[in-house]
Structure formats: C-alpha cells, structure tokens
Design a protein that fits this description.
alpha+beta, 3 helices, six-stranded antiparallel sheet, Thiol Ester Dehydrase, Chain A
C-alpha cells in the first residue's frame, strides 16, 4: 500500500465501528483501497449471515473509502446508484476482506466498484456504484453534557 492514511484514523465515521471495519490501505497504482471487516452478530439474520441490505453497507464503505483515499481525504462520494450481486453468505464472526476501486473519478461523476471476499479469496459479493464527488463531511463538534 502506497499512501499514508492518517486522515482515516483522525476522521473515522461512526458507521465504521458498527460495521466492524478497519481501513488497511490504498494502492495508488490500481486506485484500490483495502479494508477488513469482522462480521458482528447484530448484522446477521437467523440464517447466520449478514442481511442483504447490510452487505450493501460493507460494499458502500469499501468503495467510498477508496475514493476518499484517492483524493487524500478531501472528497467523498455521494451515491446515485449501487448495483450489487450476492454470491455467498457472510457468516457471523468471519473476517471479510473488502477491495474498493475507483474506476473513473471525474469532476461530475465517479464510477466505483467493490468486492467482498473471504480471507482465502472466495468472492462473496460485488458491487458497482455511480456517485457524485462532494467535499468530505467533517465530524460535528462533541456535545458537552
């Protein structure tokens, strides 16, 4: 991985904890970000795997962080459309590796793709996204109680 990603640690979003996500790095040459997710029980159905709509959250996260990394933390995508394929169950307790890639990052439209796989490389889900570039939102000030 080629880039210093201190901006991730400084500005982690609240959803990252819920997803059990960890940003591992960004490869500038391939415009690919890599994340690791630990599947929490709260994300799963009685089948023992992540509910389909929540799988989209993992894919959205990895695609989004790839674009954020590509812009050195300055911008974030705002999705217009996500298309997803579910190819396997993301089981409770599993470690999932996410790969997100910036296919094309224009001034008006961004094209992204993402994939979730087991640690052994079996693809469990994939997605594409069309988004618009926006300024990356900043965390609101902490409320004093």
């Amino acid at each position: 991985m080629n880039r210093d990603n201190n901006w991730v640690l400084e500005h982690d979003s609240p959803h990252s904890e819920m997803l059990g996500s960890e940003f591992l790095g960004f490869d500038e040459e391939t415009a690919t970000g890599t994340m690791r997710f630990t599947v929490k029980r709260e994300m799963c159905t009685w089948r023992g795997g992540v509910q389909g709509g929540l799988v989209a959250g993992y894919l959205d996260d990895v695609m989004g962080y790839a674009y954020v990394a590509a812009t050195d933390g300055e911008q974030a995508p705002l999705n217009l459309e996500i298309s997803m394929q579910l190819l396997g169950l993301l089981p409770i307790g599993a470690t999932i590796i996410g790969k997100g890639r910036v296919v094309r990052g224009g001034r008006r439209v961004i094209f992204l793709e993402g994939e979730l796989q087991t640690e052994e490389g079996q693809v469990l889900a994939r997605a594409t996204s069309t988004a618009i570039p926006t300024q990356r939102p900043v965390a609101p000030p902490q409320e004093i109680t």
